[in-house]
Amino acid sequence: MRIISKNKLQYYSFISLYILATFISHSNASEKKTTDIYTYKSTSGVTSFSDIEPIDVNFSRYRVDCYACEVDSLIDWRKAKLYLQPYKNDINQAALKYGIDPAFVRAVIHAESHFNPQATSKQGAQGLMQLMPATARELGVKNSLSAQQNIKGGVKHLARLLKKYKGDNKLASAAYNAGEGAVKRYGGIPPYKETEVYVERVGILHKRYGRFSHVTN
Topology of 88-216 in CATH? Predict the structure, then answer.
C-alpha cells in the first residue's frame, strides 16, 4: 500500500482546487466573473470540491468571483435560500436615502457576493456589492470591506444607474455587471452569456425579496 504524506495531500488538494477554478473560469463566455468554489470533507474524511454550496456539512468558501454569474449554474434561483435579515438596517437606510427599492439592493448583493462582506474577486472587486477600487473611490468609500460603507456606496452607484436608465432594472443590472460602456455599445443588455444570466437572476431574486418586503422593512 502506498502512503501519501500530509504535505503531498495538501499539495494535491490545492492542485484539484486550482483545476476546478480554472475549469469554471474558462467555461464562462464572459471574461469578467465566475462563481464560488466550496471545499468540505466527506464522512470518510476525503476533501471534496464543489461549485454548489454543500448542505448540512461544514465547508469553506473559496472566492472565484460573482456568485450569480456562472452560466451553467445548477442553483434553482426560484428556490434558493434568501437572506432577509443580514444588514437589514443598512440596506433600508441606504435605499431610502437614494430612493430605490431595498428588495432590488438585496437582489444585487445576493447576486454579487452571496452576502459575504469579505468577498474579493480576482479583478479586485470587494465586499457585499463588489465595488472595484476606482468605483469605490469615486463613491467616497474608504473601506470596501466595511459592510456599512460598501452598502452606502453600492446603493449610491445603483441609484445613479437606475436614474440613467429611467428606472429600467434590467439595464441597471446589466450596467452593474458589464459596465455602462457595454450597455451603450450594444444599445441594451450586452450579448454576453454571463451578463444575460446575471440580469435574469437578479430579476428573479428581486421579485422574491419583494414578496418579503413586510419582513425586511
Answer: Lysozyme (1.10.530)
pLDDT higher at 206 or 71: 206
Model confidence band, residue 25 (pLDDT cutoffs 50, 70, 90): very low
For the chain, where do the domains classified as CATH 1.10.530.10 start and end?
88-216
pLDDT for the residue numbered 58: 67
Catalytic residue among 112, 138, 194, 200: 112
The pLDDT value recorded for residue 180 is: 96
Q: Is 112 a catalytic residue?
A: yes
Q: What is the DSSP string of the chain?
A: -PPPPHHHHHHHHHHHHHHHHHHHHHH-SSSS---EEEEEE-TTS-EEEESS--SSS-EEEEE-S-TT--TT----TTTSPP--STTHHHHHHHHHHHT--HHHHHHHHHHHHTT-TT-B-TT--BTTTTB-HHHHHHTT-S-TTSHHHHHHHHHHHHHHHHHHTTT-HHHHHHHHHH-HHHHHHHTSS-S-HHHHHHHHHHHHHHHHHHTTHHHH-
